[in-house]
């Protein structure tokens, strides 16, 4: 009886050692995968935080532009009236929203090392349709001429038709920012080596752009 009990205890001990060994092997195999997933979450967390900053900056800049007059000295002169002020305020808003991490020159015409762009458009609507667009049809005033507007007239008309705005004016601020991977993880840069371009926009009413009807 004692011999059988001893043998049973020996078998239980061996099984525990085998189980611990199996768990260690499984953990060793899964650890790299877990680290890759965790580091990827951290990297994309930084990306999401920056994108939220860009969204906030577009909103703040559009609020400023909503109270300004986009019809000054148009269409030939974009300096130093509405467009200069809108670009400059967008840069300050982006710097403020990101707590200084996105440090573009505050001079609206200094595009040195600027990674991205600011595109501003203004619209006058009659019966929900674009009557006039500043600075021109299907175009926006690009700060550094790195990116065009993503909102042609047809898309704006479709958006405004659904809003039923009637006769009014509006201003559109678009901000592009070229996000570079902060951690530079090889399993991300192998597929997206140049980072990703973030784009945010905001449309605000602007009574100064409303056409005379």
Layout: helices, strands, pairs:
Elements: H1 2-66, H2 82-97, E1 116-126, E2 129-134, E3 141-142, H3 153-163, E4 168-179, H4 186-189, E5 196-205
Antiparallel strand pairs: 1-2, 1-3, 1-4, 4-5
Helix pairs in contact: 1-2
Task: Give a structural overview.
- The protein is of the alpha+beta class.
- The chain has helices spanning 2-66, 82-97, 153-163, 186-189, and strands at 116-126, 129-134, 141-142, 168-179, 196-205.
- The termini are far apart.
- The relative contact order is 0.16.
- The mean pLDDT is 83.
Quick overview of this protein structure:
This protein has 213 residues and is α+β, with helices and mostly antiparallel strands. It contains 4 helices and 5 strands.
Query: Low-confidence segments, ≥5 residues, pLDDT <50?
Result: none
Q: What does the average pLDDT come to?
A: 83
Proportion of residues in helical segments = 40-55%
The count of domains is 1
3D shape: elongated
Separate helix tally = 4
Can you count the beta strands? 5
Strand content: 15-25%
The helix/strand class is: alpha+beta
């Amino acid at each position: 009886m004692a011999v059988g009990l001893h043998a049973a205890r020996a078998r239980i001990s061996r099984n525990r050692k085998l189980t611990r060994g199996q768990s260690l092997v499984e953990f060793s195999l899964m650890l790299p995968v877990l680290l890759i997933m965790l580091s990827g979450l951290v990297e994309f967390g930084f990306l999401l935080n920056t994108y939220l900053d860009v969204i906030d900056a577009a909103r703040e800049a559009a609020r400023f532009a909503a109270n300004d007059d986009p019809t000054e000295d148009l269409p030939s002169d974009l300096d130093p009236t509405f467009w200069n002020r809108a670009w400059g305020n967008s840069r300050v808003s982006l710097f403020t929203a990101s707590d200084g991490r996105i440090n573009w020159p505050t001079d609206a015409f200094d595009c040195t090392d600027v990674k991205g762009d600011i595109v501003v458009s203004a619209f006058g609507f009659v019966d929900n349709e674009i009557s006039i667009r500043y600075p021109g049809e299907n175009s926006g005033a690009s700060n550094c001429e790195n990116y065009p507007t993503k909102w042609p007239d047809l898309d704006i008309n479709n958006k405004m038709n659904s809003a039923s705005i009637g006769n009014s004016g509006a201003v559109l601020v678009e901000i592009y920012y070229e996000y570079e991977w902060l951690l530079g993880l090889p399993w991300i840069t192998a597929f997206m080596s140049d980072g990703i371009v973030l784009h945010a926009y905001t449309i605000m009413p602007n009574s100064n752009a409303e056409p005379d009807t």
